């Protein structure tokens, strides 16, 4: 089987882009729901140690979102707007409150691989190679890996 | 006087970024209004030959926008969401309906130069150098130049 068993996080050699690729035992519709339904999203996103609380969520083209991730009383806020929400593709902006002028443009796509498998591609575009590399050095892969592992378990349990 | 008398449109040498710089005889507050008030915006944006009609406009952090530019019965639609709207900075997404998967992340800033002058910087980030260069070849500078000339006249007339 040619599927990607682990999460691949790749930096473009020349552009300030991070590309994440991850296969799931899920339909495209399930991955779309996992990224747009606020209750489902809050259950899987981010590292195991943080609990996510949705503050605002309007997953429609032209809508916006905000959530807070908390650990031991410390809160980390994130927000953005939904440029486009359609079944095979979500384009949104992303800012961490701790770096308020930093904005990423994120494009998610869901590719049906057949046999109940779907490939998620999540591309983040920022405005400098330095900003991208700082993000790669931040330990973001822990949250990405642990989040997708939680989503795997939710899919296996029939929660999505 | 060190001000920039014409519009400067520059491509970053390595990144898929177009940077527009233009000075106006205006306060930062006036340039902010010209970019956020839909009636004012529709009067100046784009080339002289096109008439702009606002379809939807909510210039707040987390809001969205859509307008149509028309010439001789042909309409060109544009839309996006407002990631952040604050007095010195607007961050928004931008898509031309004719190329629906192309998305630019635009950052506008208004720098007070004193003496009633303000420098506008408009930076557009896209996801490939090819996409950026296609945009530069599209004749976009005509619309940019003519639009800012209209805004100059509105400012001189006290319309903003």
Automatic annotation (TrEMBL), chains A, B:
Residue ranges annotated for the Activator of Hsp90 ATPase homologue 1/2-like C-terminal domain, each copy included: 26-155
Alphabetized InterPro entries for the sequence = ASHA1/2-like_C, START-like_dom_sf
Q: Which CDD domains match?
A: SRPBCC_CalC_Aha1-like_9
Q: Report the SUPFAM superfamilies cross-referenced here.
A: Bet v1-like
Ranges in coiled-coil conformation:
none
Q: Which family does it belong to?
A: Belongs to the AHA1 family.
**What is the designated name of this protein?**
Activator of HSP90 ATPase
